[in-house]
Amino acid sequence: MRKLYAALTMLTFVLIPILLTAQDVNVTGDWEMTVQSPRGERTHNIHFEQDGEKLTVTMEGRGGEEITGEGTIKENKIEWSITRSTPRGEFTITYT
Hints:
The chain is mainly beta. It has one helix at residues 2-11, and strands spanning 29-37, 40-51, 54-60, 66-74, 77-86, 89-95.
């Protein structure tokens, strides 16, 4: 199971078509994210709230539950982490 999550993290590709300029980046709003994993392609709904470089992220989990996380946006790089609890313990996925 951990190998799957590690592979998911490494293979995650976020499609965010933004024209980036040094001062005008704002990703606040609803987005769709497509993830390539060993189990195939999956699409998730994401909501970003941006305050300067700080991001608050709300994602839809596999079971439809809301998952929240925090991250940053600097220049043309977005990164956030989500921590999930499972019967086998907690794990964190970092998206870039």
